[in-house]
Design goal:
Distance between the termini: 15 Å
CATH architecture of the largest domain: Beta Barrel
Shape: flat
Helix content: 40-55%
Number of domains: 3
Strand order of the largest sheet: 2-1-7-8-9-6-3
Structural class: alpha+beta
Length: about 325
């Protein structure tokens, strides 16, 4: 609507799904930002004393009007008012959590609380008035930064974990004359080398604009090396004659290394455009799939789609095939 779209394009991106463009539908908005206040009253004293206890979750409400034909996603096909309303209801029911780009406040992590709609066919055909209510789904800025460290911070955690593991393994296993003990240390070093290669690849990918599909394969390699290391540790019990409890510190170090690697991958992926899973409704070519998702920008996403789906057929993709694609961005 005139007077609102110049500030920002209102959009909501459900987690793992395409961004829904709502900018041209906005009639008005209403924000409710509350504060939790503890009240203290004193005997024989007038009034009360307040103590701030943090803000309530904000509620962001938008009144929209759905009419005519228009695409709901960037590059998507034109949809009737009824079809767009149905798509909004499906999105709200299937995944209410996601990223909201507000007209005034910018990017917010929210939960889609409700959608209320009404229509009066006697006054206007295919004119649906709806109210969308979102609730804040994020903590204050300081906690959010601490909960989502940078890829470099996650990389440091992984490096520290496997470095400590190798140092401990060298003291206990490498110094032993037993072949079983030596084998356990060699396996620990291979595990650390695999994790180090993944860390280097992840940090390189963090500085590139595209997604590196090999990172998940390398993460699986770390998990396989972890299992091989655990098997080598179990073999040492025949020589040490100790309880399996003695292996807990080494197992813990391997688990911490793998967990830090997983968090590193997530930190890198958070810097990239969000991916989602597209299931082919019928037999389609890759170009037809890209045209359905990206519209006129299909060709520019072809190389990206092939990298994300290296084993997908190129000529005819069967119905029901699952493809990983980058979520289309809403054009501001």
């Amino acid at each position: 609507m005139a007077g609102l779209e110049e500030y920002a394009a209102l959009s909501f991106t459900p987690q793992g799904q395409q961004a829904l463009s709502l900018a041209d539908m906005v009639l008005s908005y209403d924000h409710d930002h509350g504060q939790r206040l503890a009240a203290f009253e004193y005997l024989k004293r007038d009034g009360e004393e307040l103590e701030p206890m943090g803000a309530n979750g904000s509620r962001l409400t938008y009144k929209i009007v759905i009419m005519g034909e228009a695409p709901l996603t960037a590059g998507g096909p034109p949809m009737s008012a009824g079809a767009r309303y149905q798509a909004l209801v499906r999105a709200q029911r299937s995944q209410p959590r996601g990223l909201l780009v507000d007209l005034r406040l910018g990017r917010w992590q929210v939960g889609w609380r409700s959608i209320r709609a009404s229509e009066e066919p006697e006054q206007a055909i295919d004119c649906i008035e709806a109210t969308l209510e979102f609730t804040e789904d994020q903590v204050d800025q300081a906690l959010a930064i601490e909960a989502q460290p940078t890829p470099q911070a996650r990389a440091n955690e992984a490096i520290n974990a496997y470095s400590i593991l190798v140092a401990a393994s060298q003291l206990v296993y490498k110094a032993s004359p037993s072949a079983l003990m030596q084998s356990a240390h060699d396996t620990a070093e291979r595990f650390a080398d695999t994790a180090a290669a993944f860390v280097n690849a992840a940090l390189t990918a963090a500085n590139t604009p595209t997604v590196d599909p090999t990172l998940r394969t390398q993460l699986e390699n770390i998990d396989r090396q972890r299992e091989a290391y655990f098997a080598a540790l179990d073999d040492t019990l025949a020589f040490t004659q100790q309880s399996a409890v003695s292996l807990v510190p080494f197992r813990h170090g391997a688990y911490i290394t793998y967990a830090a690697s997983v968090e590193l991958l997530l930190a890198v992926e958070n810097l990239k455009p969000q991916a989602f899973e597209f299931v082919t409704p019928t037999q389609m070519t890759l170009l037809q799939v890209l045209t359905t998702v990206y519209g006129s920008d299909a060709q520019s996403h072809r190389q990206e789609a092939e990298a994300l789906n290296p084993f997908a057929p190129r000529i005819q993709i069967p119905a029901g095939y699952r493809l990983r694609l980058i979520t289309p961005t809403v054009r501001q």
